Q: What sequence folds into this?
């Protein structure tokens, strides 16, 4: 499948109907709740990752957590594969406070629903495209602009839901040059003065040693910090980065972070290409590695059903994580879940009319599956509402740190120790909604 087809095949249900969410009580065990928390969290902490990667990373975090729990209650013994050095040398990312070893998906290019302008080495063409967009919004003729400074490198313009983003990068050797460079940029591209935001960030070598850095959001919350983070990833110094947005009136949610990152990395990559520097951008799509499966294979064990190998390395497959989520959230009826009868006859068995009237009708496998999928959509919707309320007030790292405590506050209550391993209990989605940030 193409990347777009793969990501579409992994789509998860979502409902943000607060009335339905507030009244929902689910029957589940803890592991899929952690998985749901992690998958939705990654939309905010790693927005550049496609859904396939988010599912894989979330499953890796859940598996590592489950093994730690199994060791703590005596179900498993010995050092973990990570402690034994499996995956050594591979990069790591943090998911809900846990370090996860990953494998870069070299060459995997994924875009969301945004429209990306055609690339062109001539910055004049890009200027005309953005000016034309602004003309359509304002109803005015594009202002004639002088030839842009050759020292600026631009990303491709990206549009989604009537908003357009573009980033530019140039060199500076002193923080005092920032104002002059900004004025020259506005003079070269007058249409930028009509933009909703012109955020900037720079990193410059300090005469006293080290690197001085500063940023300005210009009303685009968190944009400056994001640009500095991208610049650190590529070790960009003596560089000024400007990110421009024309806001279309529709909130983009976490897609905003992905688009800003893509534009920032695009402008820096173009600058590095033009200056002949080595391009080593962060933010690549990754898989979550299954270190236990890697160790098991070396000892003669076989891979589990949700894993496969990529260049000889076991990964957590996103299809397995998705399937686990879809089947894990039944509706709580104040007792045990109603199940499909497995005895002879099942739903087809005929009984006397009086008995049939007194016995609740059992649901078919298909109906139960649809109900569980709907419940998953409600849970993911509740989590999205919660994360949305905090996203503009916390850094990605802080959001990741808090997510685990939020999960602990609402997770199903089960007995401690071995007796609670895999046990099911209730999850009230109103409790999840209550994790929202309270407006002061």
A:
């Amino acid at each position: 499948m193409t990347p777009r087809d793969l990501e579409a095949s992994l789509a998860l249900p979502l409902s943000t109907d607060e009335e339905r969410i507030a009244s929902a009580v689910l029957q589940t065990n803890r592991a899929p709740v952690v998985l749901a928390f992690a998958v939705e969290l990654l939309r905010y902490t790693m927005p550049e990752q496609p859904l396939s990667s988010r599912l894989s990373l979330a499953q890796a975090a859940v598996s590592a957590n489950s093994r730690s729990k199994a060791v703590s209650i005596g179900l498993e013994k010995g050092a973990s594969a990570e402690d034994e050095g499996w995956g050594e040398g591979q990069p790591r990312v943090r998911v809900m406070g846990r370090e996860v070893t990953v494998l870069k998906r070299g060459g995997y290019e994924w875009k969301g629903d945004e429209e990306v302008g055609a690339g062109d080495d001539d910055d004049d063409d890009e200027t005309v495209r953005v000016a034309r967009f602004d003309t359509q919004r304002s109803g005015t003729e594009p202002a004639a602009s002088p030839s842009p400074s050759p020292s600026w490198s631009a990303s491709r313009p990206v549009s989604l839901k009537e908003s357009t983003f573009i980033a530019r990068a140039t060199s500076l050797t002193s923080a005092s040059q920032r104002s002059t460079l900004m004025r020259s940029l506005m003079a070269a591209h007058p249409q930028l003065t009509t933009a909703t935001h012109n955020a900037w960030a720079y990193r410059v070598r300090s005469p006293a040693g080290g690197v001085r850095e500063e940023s300005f959001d210009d009303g685009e919350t968190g944009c400056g910090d994001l640009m500095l983070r991208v610049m650190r990833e590529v070790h960009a110094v003596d560089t000024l980065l400007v990110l421009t947005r024309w806001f279309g009136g529709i909130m983009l949610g976490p897609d905003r972070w992905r688009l800003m990152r893509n534009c920032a990395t695009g402008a820096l990559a173009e600058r590095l290409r033009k200056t002949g520097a080595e391009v080593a951008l962060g933010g690549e799509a990754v898989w979550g590695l299954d270190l236990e499966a890697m160790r098991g294979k070396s000892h003669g064990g076989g891979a589990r059903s949700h894993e496969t190998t990529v260049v000889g390395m076991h990964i957590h497959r996103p299809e397995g994580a998705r399937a686990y989520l879809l089947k894990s959230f039944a509706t709580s009826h104040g007792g045990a879940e109603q199940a499909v009868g497995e005895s002879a006859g099942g739903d087809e068995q005929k009984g006397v009319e009086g008995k049939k009237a007194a016995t609740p009708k059992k649901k078919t496998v298909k109906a139960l599956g649809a109900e569980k999928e709907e419940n998953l959509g409600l849970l993911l919707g509740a989590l999205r509402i919660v994360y949305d309320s905090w996203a503009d007030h916390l850094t990605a790292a802080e959001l990741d740190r808090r997510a685990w405590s939020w999960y602990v506050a609402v997770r199903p209550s089960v007995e401690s120790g071995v007796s609670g391993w895999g046990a099911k209990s209730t999850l009230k989605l109103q409790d999840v909604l209550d994790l929202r940030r309270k407006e002061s």
Summary: The chain has two domains: 3-108+287-337+361-433, 115-275.
